[in-house]
Write a structure and sequence with these properties.
The chain is an alpha+beta fold. It contains three helices and four strands, in the order H-H-E-E-H-E-E.
């Protein structure tokens, strides 16, 4: 066999070996490409879900108060009526909803610090009342709501599909001065 023939045979053998290896690895390469395409679709769907969750969270930030504030609130100063009005404002409720605040000392306790008060609200919906209770509890950790009496408002005061305003009587105990 001549040298030229031998070189030609080696090249032919190398080409055949390369074709066989390509033929054997092609299904795995196609599978990998298919898996990559699926992963990209899943990534796109996850990105869309994340964007939708961020939008929902941003929408809820205005409706749901932060249940775990980063810095604890210090007790507010001022009369109980002033503090109630501030809590109403922070909860996004019209201050005109505050009908009355009636403080009353708790018998057998220190009258300058321990007190019971009755707060009457009118025209508040249940979601508003929930925001108020959360906001006020966060701002006034020394207060405890001992009773909440609700009276349903008139149905004609609410548009169809909206919450019916109610009258709420809140009994609060604790260090309110």
């Amino acid at each position: 066999m001549s040298t030229g023939m031998m070189i030609r045979s080696v090249w032919t053998l190398a080409i055949v070996a390369a074709l066989v290896m390509t033929w054997l690895s092609a299904p795995r390469a196609l599978r990998s490409q298919r898996d990559l395409a699926r992963a990209r679709v899943q990534l796109d769907l996850a990105a869309q879900d994340t964007a939708e969750a961020a939008t929902i969270t941003a929408d809820l930030d205005g409706l749901v108060p932060d249940r775990n504030p980063s810095t604890p609130s210090e007790p507010q100063r001022g009369s109980l009526a002033e503090r109630a009005a501030r809590a109403l404002a922070r909860a996004g409720i019209d201050p005109a909803s505050l009908v009355s605040v009636t403080p009353a000392p708790i018998p057998g306790t220190n009258a300058t610090t321990d007190e019971r008060a009755t707060v009457v609200l009118s025209g508040v919906t249940l979601p508003q009342l929930g925001r108020l209770l959360t906001t006020w509890s966060d701002a006034e950790p020394g207060l405890a709501f001992r009773a909440i009496d609700l009276e349903r408002g008139r149905d004609e005061d609410a548009a169809p599909g909206q919450d019916v305003p109610a009258r709420a009587v809140l009994t609060i105990e604790g260090s309110v001065r």
